[in-house]
Hints:
- By secondary structure, this protein is an alpha/beta fold.
- The chain folds into 2 domains: 189 residues, Response regulator (Rossmann fold, 3-Layer(aba) Sandwich); 168 residues, Rossmann fold (3-Layer(aba) Sandwich), CATH 3.40.50.
- It is 48% helix and 14% strand.
- The protein is built from 16 helices and 12 strands.
- The strands form 2 sheets. The protein has a 6-stranded parallel sheet with strand order 2-1-3-4-5-6, with helices on both faces. It has a 6-stranded parallel sheet with strand order 9-8-7-10-11-12, with helices on both faces.
- The longest helix is centred in the N-terminal third of the chain and has 17 residues.
- The protein is globular and about 70 Å long.
- The two termini are 27 Å apart.
Amino acid sequence: MSPSNPRVLVVSGSAGHGHTMAGKAVAAALKLRHPEIETTHVDCVALTNNVFKHVYRWGYIRLVDKHPLLWRHLYDITNEKTSRLAHAITVIAGRRFVRLVKQRKPDVVLCTHFLAPELLGRALRKGKIDTRLHAVITDHDTHRNWYYPEVDHYYVASDLVKTRMVLTYGVDEKRIDVTGIPVRPDFSTQPDLARVRVRYGLDPDRPTVLFLSGGFAAGPMGRSILGLWRDRRDIQVIAVCGRNERLRRRIARLPRPEGAVLLPLGFVHDVRDLMAVADVVISKSGGMSTSECMAAGRPMVISGSIPGQEERNADAVVEARAGFRALTPEEVRCRTVQLLDDPDLRATLARRARHMGRPSAAADIVDHVASTMQTEETVRGPLFHGAL
């Protein structure tokens, strides 16, 4: 360890958007709150070999998009046991990442993707790397892929996830902090609503609905929007389509009733501002989307869930009574109109969302990381895992 020049390596993984966003959130919080710490953010998936990287990214996206039942099977079976062969292939593919960690010699590796502990575990066990390994679980669930005895500390979304880690894997509860899932620092502040509305040409006296495209193909999103306009022509619709330009163009061509407002947007950096001016947010239940919506204090209509971890996220929102599931365009229409027609219900769900949301999660995580760098004590977890 080098207290005079402490270093933290933040490690995310570019398989799914949420892991990367969580990594950026904690890296930004470290630089803001602890500028004395040298902070670097890397993508461990990008540092694997080309074949593995392509299969890992493409395979995940293909499975959850086209073959969700197969993905559910793989999610469940790998939660029961891990494959020694798959583990060996992964470790071989990730040697470049391990070399980078050896070269950088960070005091702490703070990971927001479960691939990093798998790649670093062997080197840590054999003493080839001297660092502390901290993991941020980015869903309202845990999975066997997250548990490695070499992880010194976990940061989790809720007491339920903490309990699962303790009872399922035998992790000492002192090694787990319930912080929430880290979101960007701007979620801790309230934007100037009038300025945001002027920027997007929104009428403050009309209801605003924000669609985030992750839970939709073009057809279902379009049908949901048209259905809303049949009930409430005064609705202002913001449709964020991310990097899917084809989807954005199709939404832009929707026939609009007289006076209807539709803003089809591509990738945006100011989703916090858009959530702030929205009365209802419609999205799938990704860990980051859910956490951002709750941190913004907005009622959520969950339009879809990837089998496994995102179903747990949806469960968490519904159990907190901060939103509704609505898995068809007709249900989206019904639930959204219900919220818009009932201001008291909408306000109640918004209040529960704020209670569930943890906009200070990134700050709490990095403050704890900084505090652990003051001591030399390292405690490992119980030595059992299917991939050992």
